[in-house]
Specification:
alpha+beta, Phosphatase 2c, domain 1, six-stranded antiparallel beta sheet, five-stranded antiparallel beta sheet
Length: 256
């Protein structure tokens, strides 16, 4: 009986976000955007000289929202099936928009951005990522990393050439192996999940995860506070821990 009630439960989502340039950077190259109505949530961490990183991350967020508005919450069953494909196509379109812009403007040449995005349709969500911005899920007070970093140290850990502890200390930990805009095409990782009431998703840039261990993030998220206050606490904790990079977090809660 409980399982059937859970299966038929209507899920709605709430969200909040915060971003900060951190304690040592002169500008903020992170960007985020979301539409609860459309079920689209995006965090990007730009890279490039001068203002190029800011341009790349902003293009990616704008393109994702523009292309996915109206798709996620459509009542059509066919559209629900097509949603992950539409989300992947939106990532590829964002990549092409950034790459094309960098080819036209020498000042922006080589710019790129990471991306982590969540799109929701009722009880199902799809998480897409390129680079080392991450998605986590807090369920029953336990934090789980959903995405896998596209980074040099992460690949070495997966191959057994480096331990997780060594990866945390490595001077190469900021080197990413996949990004939007640096090549003419890109392939995002896609993860499909079924949500339960109470699930809390965190999308964040590495300015948060490089400063705070997963256990610390878990304890902060488990405080039972409103989402905007949780975002503020995450950012302040990362700044107090060093704040060496821009910090962005976006929280999405599944409400029963």
């Amino acid at each position: 009986m409980e399982e059937s009630l859970l299966a038929s439960a209507v899920i709605r989502y709430t969200a909040a976000a915060a971003t900060d340039r951190g304690s040592k950077r002169a500008s903020n190259e992170d960007a985020f955007g979301f539409s609860v109505e459309d079920g689209v949530y995006v965090v990007c961490d730009g890279m490039g000289g001068a203002a190029a990183g800011e341009v790349a991350s902003s293009i990616a967020v704008d393109e994702m929202l523009r292309l996915l508005r109206g798709r996620a919450q459509s009542g059509s069953a066919d559209r629900a099936v097509m949603l992950p494909q539409a989300a992947e196509e939106a990532v590829c379109a964002a990549n092409q928009a950034i790459f094309s812009r960098s080819q036209r403007d020498v000042k922006l040449y080589g710019m790129g951005t990471t991306l982590v995005s969540l799109v929701a349709k009722e009880r199902r969500v799809w998480v897409l990522n390129v680079g080392d911005s991450r998605c986590y899920r807090l369920r029953n007070r336990r934090l789980e990393q959903i995405t896998r970093d596209h980074s040099l140290v992460e690949e070495r850990v997966r191959l057994g050439r480096m331990t997780p502890a060594e990866a945390l200390r490595s001077p190469l930990r900021n080197v990413i192996t996949r990004a939007l805009g640096t090549e003419s095409s890109v392939t995002p990782d896609v993860f499909e999940l079924e949500t339960e009431p109470g699930d809390l998703f965190l999308l964040c840039s590495d300015g948060l995860t490089h400063e705070l261990a997963d256990a610390r993030i878990e304890s902060l998220l488990d405080a039972g506070l409103p989402l905007d206050e949780l975002c503020g606490r995450l950012v302040e904790a990362a700044k107090k821990a060093g704040g060496s990079d821009n910090i962005t977090c976006l929280l999405v809660r599944a409400e029963g």
